[in-house]
Specification:
This protein is mainly β. The protein has one domain: Trefoil (Acidic Fibroblast Growth Factor, subunit A) (Trefoil), CATH 2.80.10. The longest helix is centred in the middle third of the chain and has 7 residues. The C terminus is likely disordered.
Length: 155
């Protein structure tokens, strides 16, 4: 995927994230894995980070299992930040045509939508259809020039 994108859950709800304490829709860029050097070589092609499209150096990361947008430049522990902001992108994990994001430093923990539309990382140990629905996403391209969203087919 190239360019800006937003995430939508299987139910069609747009994902919102905490940005400086406020829940908001975040348009992001899918960028190279921040923890590239620490992940297994076979996983690297599927490892990505999500950078806030409006702020270079601000990434989606988990903090106490909640996903939020934080500045890489303001962290006191860069290796931990890079782990927290890196995810394995799974295709068709729970449903055909949907993606799932697995945390790099919490194996078998997937990004999952909460009732308020925000994301957190939760283990798949108690797998249910509700879990699969909340952990399945589609990415939609976002064009500021055209002001509409376009469904992206996976590769």
């Amino acid at each position: 995927m190239v360019g800006s994108a937003q995430m939508f859950s299987k139910s069609g709800r747009r994902v919102i994230l905490s940005t400086t304490g406020i829940l908001d829709v975040v348009t992001f860029l899918l960028v190279s894995c921040r923890a590239w050097d620490t992940v297994a070589e076979d996983v690297r092609p599927r490892c990505f980070s999500l950078m806030d499209a409006s702020r270079t150096g601000w990434y989606v990361r988990h903090w106490a299992y909640n996903l939020r947008v934080d500045s890489e430049g303001e962290t006191s522990d860069l290796p931990l930040f890079q782990q927290d902001s890196s995810f394995i992108l799974h295709v068709d994990s729970f449903y055909p045509g949907y993606y799932a994001l697995e945390s790099i430093n919490h194996v078998s923990h997937y990004a999952r939508m909460r009732d308020d539309g925000s994301l957190w990382v939760e283990p798949d140990a108690y797998y249910t259809s509700a879990y699969a629905d909340a952990a399945s996403f589609q990415f939609h391209a976002y064009s500021m020039l055209r002001m509409y969203q376009l469904f992206l087919l996976r590769d």
